[in-house]
Design goal:
This protein is of the alpha/beta class. Helix content is 35%, strand content 22%. It has 14 helices and 15 strands. α2 packs antiparallel against α14 and α3 packs across α9. It starts with a helix and ends with a helix.
Length: 468
Amino acid sequence: MKKIFIIIPLFLGGFLFSQKKPQKKPANKTGIAVKLNYHDEFKKISDEIMTNGRAYDNLGELTKGIGTRFSATPGYTKAVEWAEKKFKEIGIEMIWRQEAKAPVWIRGKESLQIKAENGDWKNIRMLSFGNSEGTGGKDLTGEIVMLTSTAELNALSIGQLKGKIVFVNLPMDPRIINTSDSYLATAKSKLISASVIAKTGAKALIIRSLTTANDDTPHAKMIYYEADDKIKIPALSIGVKSADELEKMLKKQKVTAKLNMNAESRGQTTNPNIIAEIPGKKDAKVIVLGAQLDSWDFGEGATDDGTGVVQCIEVLRTLKTLGFENNHTIRVVLYANSENGGQGREMYAAYVKRKDEKHIFALGTDAGGYSPRGFSLDMSAQRRKLVFGWKNFFLPYGVYDFDQTEAIQDISPLKKLDIPLAELVVDTQRYFDYHHSIEDTFDKVNKRELLLGAVAMTQMILMVDKNW
């Protein structure tokens, strides 16, 4: 009996002791909900898109079936109808148009010729800058003066180059590895401003194309004039090889240019943003994805930004196909007039402010359908910290860069409303080979890279919806 009494207390003591020290649960350091197995959810999304994704076929329809879709043209109207059809095909019921102002700008016929002192006129490939003034269909002739730095520009006095045609020979800096940064550094230079150059007395502006390609394809961009400009000079671009040849000629002799541009502005009209959404099951807070629907008037706009358009549609298709129960409203906005005015993005931001809609996240994609590398996070430190906690889920898909902090695409006006922004970061080393040129065509897009971008975007939307 004594043994029994001895054993029982020992047994009970051990049992009670074990209850006082339960096994500790592993700490959740990611700051995310643990109801879902996110590794499994990411795999489901990836498998669906990489196996059944329609983005590449849709891009073919948009670029080859419709072609150019410049603001205020029949091509843009066709693109609007196409987008609405695509949303309906994937089962989206909430689709509407939001009219935005758009300038009516006509390129018309254009030409550029140059001639050395004792030589003959030679034709040079060129493109008028968007919204540029023309020459009224008349020849404009003048001696070419080359500028290569802001220091040279600053050394000039007002009117010093009266009657001249200024050639700005300023390449993108190859030392800047991030090509988007290199492009912006050059594009923001005073040398690219028609208003600034006009103050020197120059009567036209020729700009070396902003491109990473080593060819003779001209690349255009939007030109801006200041409201108080007394004279608005024509502006155009030439390819890299033509720029290099012109530089060599100018170092040896006087060179004259003759340009003829029928470009003209014809007031304003309206073009619609196209908006489609899946209503939230929990609340009406909005997660928005954005891409530009328009392209330049001379190209298919495959990488800029047809790829972004079809990726946004693919996100909604995937969520619908997988039966995703979204907490918040997930909305896609395909913006009008991104290339030559930006009125679509301003209109949407004004709408959000006027309606006092609660947006918790905005994701933009406008850097081409190349391999995804990460997300640029333009948001508070607290929000960035939450996203950093999700890195391990993205790493198996080659998505690792969360360190950039600017989202500069069509979602950017939403920053004024304190909405957290993110931008899909891709490998842009080839993007500026084709950007804003006739070479931006469907055949430049790789199907697998395009789909991987849609995978990363859908995964990000999942994480935001379940954790914010």
